[in-house]
C-alpha cells in the first residue's frame, strides 16, 4: 500500500456525482455494490440490522467457502487517466478483504456486462494487502485513458467506498460548441407523452443531474404491444449535433432500447409521419448509464420524438445543437419586444 499521496485532490472519476455506475458485482449478499461510489463518507449505526444481518454502508459479499475471488466493475462517469485509487474499508473490521487488486479496460460505446467480462483488462494496482477500517490509498503510474475499472477482493469481504482519482480525458468527437435545445431553461417543453404514471416527463429537461430515480421520467410497466414515447418542442429551431440519454438510477427499469426522430414544423405538419427524419437509430440502452450519441442529421428541426422500447425510465434527455441563424435573429427581436420599459434603457445586443 502506498503512503497518502496528493492524487486525492484530483476528481473522483467514478463518483456518482459524475454519473459513474457500478455495473456489475458477482456477489452482493450483505450490502449493495452501488454503495461503493456514493460521494459521501460511509456511515455506521449499531442499530441497523436486516434479515441478512448487519447492514453496512458499503459493498459486502458472502463468506466464500470455495476457491475464487469477488469482483465489482465500475463504469467511470468521466473516462480519463487514473493517478490513484482509494479502497476504503471504513467500519469493516472483522470482515474486510485482506488483499485487493485494481484493473482497468477501455471499451468504445456502452458495453453490456457480458462484453465487459470478456474484455481485456490491464493491471493498475497489483494484488496488495489492505487494512480494515482504513482508507488504503494506492498510487497509479499508468498513462492511458480508461473507461472502466474493476476492483478485485481476495477472497471476499466488505469495502465501504472505492475512489478513482484522475484527470478527465473527453472524447474530442463530442466537444462541439452547442446549446441544449431541449432544456427547459432554454425554452424546451414536452408537448406529448404516452405514459407518465410515476413521474412527469418534464423532469427530463431540468438542469443538472438527477439525484434519485424519482427526479426523472418513469412510466408504468407496459403489458400490451407497442412502446412508450414523448415529443419535445425544442426551445429554438436548430441543427442537432449530439444527444444524451441518461438512465442514471434506473437499474432494473431502464428502457431496453430507444430511438429518436425529428421534424421541422416550419416546413411540415407534426401529423405528417413521412416528414419525421431519423436522429438516432434504434439503439440498446444500458441501465444506470449516461449515453452520448451523435445525431444522424444536421437538418434544422423544431421538434424531436423519443421512443423507448417497450417502457422504462430516464433521468435526463439532452439535445445539443446550434440555433438556426434566422431563428436566432427572430428570437432576439422577440426577446427585445418582451422587455419592460424599465429594462429598455440599455440596448439589447444580438451578439451579447
TrEMBL record:
Pathway(s): Nitrogen metabolism; (S)-allantoin degradation; (S)-ureidoglycolate from allantoate (aminidohydrolase route): step 1/1
GO molecular function annotation: allantoicase activity
Record EC number: 3.5.3.4
A Pfam family per the record: Allantoicase
Catalytic activity line of the entry: allantoate + H2O = (S)-ureidoglycolate + urea
Coiled coil: none
Keyword Plastid on entry: no
Top-level class of the enzyme under EC nomenclature: hydrolase
Bilayer-spanning residue ranges: none
Domain Allantoicase: 20-167, 187-323
Keywords noted in UniProt: Hydrolase, Purine metabolism
GO biological process: allantoin catabolic process; purine nucleobase metabolic process
Gene3D superfamilies in the cross-refs: Galactose-binding domain-like
InterPro entries the record matches: Allantoicase, Allantoicase_dom, Galactose-bd-like_sf
Family: Belongs to the allantoicase family.
HAMAP family in alphabetical order: Allantoicase (MF_00813)
Protein name as it appears in the record: Probable allantoicase
Amino acid at each position: 500500500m502506498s503512503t497518502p499521496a496528493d492524487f486525492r485532490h484530483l476528481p473522483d472519476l467514478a463518483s456518482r456525482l459524475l454519473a459513474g455506475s457500478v455495473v456489475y458485482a458477482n456477489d452482493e449478499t450483505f450490502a449493495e455494490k452501488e454503495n461503493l461510489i456514493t460521494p459521501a463518507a460511509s456511515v455506521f449505526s449499531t442499530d441497523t440490522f436486516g434479515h441478512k444481518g448487519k447492514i453496512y454502508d458499503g459493498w459486502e459479499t458472502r463468506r466464500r467457502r470455495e476457491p475464487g475471488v469477488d469482483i465489482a466493475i465500475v463504469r467511470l462517469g468521466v473516462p480519463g487517466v487514473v493517478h490513484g485509487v482509494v479502497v476504503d474499508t471504513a467500519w469493516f473490521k472483522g470482515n474486510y478483504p485482506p488483499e485487493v487488486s485494481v484493473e482497468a479496460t477501455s471499451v468504445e460505446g456502452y458495453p453490456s456486462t457480458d462484453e465487459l467480462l470478456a474484455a481485456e483488462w490491464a493491471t493498475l494496482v497489483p494484488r496488495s494487502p489492505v487494512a480494515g477500517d482504513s482508507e488504503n490509498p494506492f498510487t497509479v503510474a499508468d498513462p492511458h485513458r480508461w473507461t472502466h475499472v474493476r476492483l478485485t477482493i481476495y477472497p471476499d469481504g466488505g469495502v465501504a467506498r472505492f475512489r478513482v482519482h484522475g484527470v478527465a480525458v473527453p472524447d474530442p468527437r463530442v466537444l462541439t460548441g452547442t446549446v441544449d435545445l431541449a432544456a427547459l431553461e432554454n425554452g424546451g417543453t414536452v408537448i406529448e407523452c404516452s405514459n407518465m404514471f410515476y413521474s412527469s416527463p418534464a423532469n427530463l429537461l431540468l438542469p443538472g443531474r438527477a439525484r434519485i430515480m424519482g427526479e426523472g421520467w418513469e412510466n408504468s410497466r407496459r403489458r400490451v404491444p407497442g412502446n412508450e414515447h414523448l415529443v419535445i418542442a425544442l426551445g429554438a429551431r436548430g441543427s442537432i449535433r449530439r444527444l444524451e440519454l441518461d438512465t442514471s438510477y434506473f437499474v432494473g427499469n431502464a428502457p431496453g432500447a430507444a430511438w429518436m426522430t425529428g421534424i421541422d414544423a416550419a416546413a411540415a405538419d407534426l401529423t405528417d409521419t413521412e416528414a419525421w427524419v431519423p436522429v438516432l437509430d434504434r439503439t440498446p440502452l444500458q441501465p444506470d448509464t449516461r449515453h452520448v450519441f451523435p445525431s444522424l442529421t444536421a437538418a434544422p428541426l423544431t421538434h424531436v420524438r423519443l421512443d423507448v422500447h417497450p417502457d422504462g425510465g430516464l433521468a435526463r434527455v439532452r439535445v445539443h445543437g446550434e440555433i438556426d441563424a434566422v431563428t436566432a435573429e427572430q428570437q432576439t427581436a422577440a426577446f427585445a419586444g418582451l422587455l419592460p420599459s424599465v429594462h429598455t434603457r440599455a440596448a439589447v445586443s444580438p451578439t451579447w
